[in-house]
Specification:
2 copies of one chain form a homodimer. By secondary structure, the first copy, chain A, is an alpha/beta fold. Helix content of chain A is about 40%, strand content about 15%. Chain A has 2 domains: about 180 residues, Amidase signature (AS) enzymes (Alpha-Beta Complex), CATH 3.90.1300; about 200 residues, Amidase signature (AS) domain (Amidase signature (AS) enzymes), CATH 3.90.1300.
Chain lengths: ~400, ~400
């Protein structure tokens, strides 16, 4: 595919050229930065005009941006985000909908919509996004990219708008696994030979295929992902095992994906209210209809119950972290359905897209696990991703194994 | 000791009565909140008048405050902090120096100075502080309190001023271990019977006494802590082992405490610059002389080198996390010296107090380990604390064991 023009792509809020500060493992690579992350000298707009108007320009770049510049990468601009990171669709009321070049009639996914679009359109080799509840993984799924949500805390969030701090991560979107690996090494500070690097091949742990997660997806999604799972099984044999969330956690309450979703939502709402409500009360920002509805949902939560949600989270995350060994992987669909069609009034969208999608994405958030979505299939051209989750801190192993498995499972 | 009057104590920036929202395990306990943490309806001042004037009142309380209120605790006010959390002394240029009732001529320690003072003066049963580089542990040491820095990420920081996010924690100061345990259970969301609780007694792991850490302390500090270490050894025998940081990590570079300090300082400076420099540039705040010097230090760092510091951190934290098993503890002095005398111009203080103190405190920050300081001794009435560090996530085990060991090692 020819790179789309910057205008046609609609991914950028600002285009500029910020050269690297040193040479390194990312020499020659161009990257874009979600406009939720500081770049020195630019205002971080967070996808909302009131935010842009009520915050001063960044004096320094976020730590994650400094790491990339010092490793040789070249920054080409800042990209559209859904308002204050608050959507999985990528249709910003004020800044428009970045192009999903693989499926132009469908949404790119959000909130890292512009970062995904810029990479998918060939205007950057990789891009920084943020992922609180799926905001890197879903755009990766929709646009046919590699998308990495790191272990919570593994990549610095200094200079990144806080949304729900115990869930917030800085992740990466890339067109291929080699670039993603190199970038992940820099951001996790593992880009020195002195640091142990994963080399196992085939995996010495188990790959648990979560059949209950596949059941949550549309039949069409299951059908196009099945050949990839079959290839895994043919190649690796007994290492690949069918299981379920409840079985892996050895706890019946963990079998209920709604409980994971509910836990995620209550923590996210309470923390986002802490991060944003004083600014909302002071500036009375103009919001798009979907964002307004999101803040209404937050305000309607009972904050005195946040401790209950925190206890559920502790229980679930302990169970899953104990179950997933350092060389184990979980395998599941990234999203339950193909990317939704663009519509004029996305906030009116009926149905259960959010509920179903967050059911799948909330597991990594609740348990602080890393997750990689890899592009393996499509439905009438619209990309469908397969996800692997790993043990906390095993991000590089996860990406390396996902790369090997992805290469083999390509239909 | 009689409770000091609120005026004489000087710990509070605001006194109020915020009743609990529910009953629970903290029924009847009063707590104070460091003025870096949101309480609904109050402006969070962060120890600086320009910050106070340029930020709107909090609409909701921080998640950690909500957890305490819902567990039955009663909030009695907000406490003095060093400016934007940027000191270990507790002498705020604008809001004064909260009383250290055990040693009134000495500093209470910072930056959670008011929180320590309020508890030590009997005006609260416990208090929330924040600890990035020692800001709970050092005031606990100076005022003769129990002080807990949690595992990084174990307690929500939503609604807390971000300073250096990969190092920031919300911790607790308390007059006794029972209260600290109960509060830690609530904040780590482990206050349900369904969640496994630690019960081992005596410890099934090892207690490594870090002789090199003791060597960094004054002879007088070593002398008054020695009886507590001897009691541990008499009681527990071979479980207590003399070791050193380099030996535990099996790596010569980890034996250099200056390397840990330097790594801490460079990460902290880069992240704090990301968190605060845009606000500084926009509002040109009035700072006390010590804070001004701190920001000058930050500005003079080479940001393009932050990736190098991140790699050192990754290496050190991996080594130490691998070495400290779930039931192991490290033992060392909390601070290298008795609390400094109050002086009129603390920013002119000569000597190496900061360097020596941060050398000890930076280990927990760099490696994200939990640490508890317990009051076991004094020098001419000025309290001296002994510290235990545990494995990541083992906060409750750490506090429980520290409580048992503290009770036994009381001279």
């Amino acid at each position: 595919m020819e790179p789309a023009s910057i205008e046609k792509c609609g991914a950028f809020v600002e285009v500029f050229s910020l050269p690297p500060t040193r040479n390194g493992s990312l020499d020659g690579l161009r990257f874009a930065v979600k406009d939720l992350i500081d770049v020195a000298g630019h205002r971080t707009g967070c996808g909302n005009p009131t935010w842009l108007a009520t915050h001063p320009p960044a004096v320094v770049s976020a730590v994650c941006v400094e790491q990339l510049l010092a490793a040789g990468a070249h920054c080409v601009g800042k990209t559209v985000t859904d308002e204050v990171a608050f959507s999985l669709l990528g249709q910003n009321h004020f800044y428009g909908t970045p192009l999903n070049p693989a499926a132009p009639d469908r949404v790119p996914g959000g909130s890292s919509s512009g970062s995904a679009s810029a990479v998918a359109c060939g205007l950057a080799d990789f891009a920084l996004g943020t992922d609180t509840g799926g905001s890197v993984r879903i755009p990766a799924n929709n646009c046919g990219l590699w998308g990495w949500r790191p272990t919570h805390g593994a990549v610095s969030v200094a200079g990144v708008m806080p949304f729900a701090p115990s869930l917030d991560t800085v992740g990466v979107l890339a067109a291929d696994c080699d670039v993603l690996q190199r970038v992940a090494r820099v951001l996790t500070a593992m880009n020195l030979p002195s640091i142990d690097t994963p080399t196992s091949d085939p995996p010495s742990g188990a790959i648990y295929v979560l059949t209950d997660a596949f059941s949550l997806a549309d039949a069409a999604v299951r059908d196009v992902l099945q050949p990839s799972v079959d290839v895994l099984r043919d190649l690796l044999g007994d290492v690949v095992r069918e299981s379920s969330l409840g079985e892996i956690c050895s706890a019946p309450e963990a079998a209920d994906w709604n409980a994971w979703l509910d836990t995620y939502r209550r923590i996210q709402a309470a923390e986002a209210e802490s991060s944003l409500s004083a600014w909302v009360a002071e500036t009375r920002p103009e919001f798009g209809p979907a964002t307004r509805a999101g803040f209404e949902f937050i305000r309607n939560q009972d904050r005195t119950r946040v401790g209950d949600a925190a206890r559920h989270r502790k229980r679930f995350s302990r169970l899953l972290q104990l179950a997933v060994g350092p060389r184990d992987l979980l395998c599941m669909p990234t999203a339950p359905t193909v990317a939704p069609l663009k519509v004029a009034r996305p906030f009116d969208r009926g149905g259960d897209y959010y509920h179903r999608t967050l059911s799948l994405t909330s597991v990594a958030g609740v348990a602080r696990l890393p997750q990689v979505s890899i592009p393996v299939a499509d439905i009438d051209g619209a990309p469908i991703g397969l996800s692997f989750l790993g043990a906390p801190g095993e991000d590089l192993y996860l990406i390396q194994m996902a790369g090997q498995l992805g290469a083999r499972s390509k239909p």
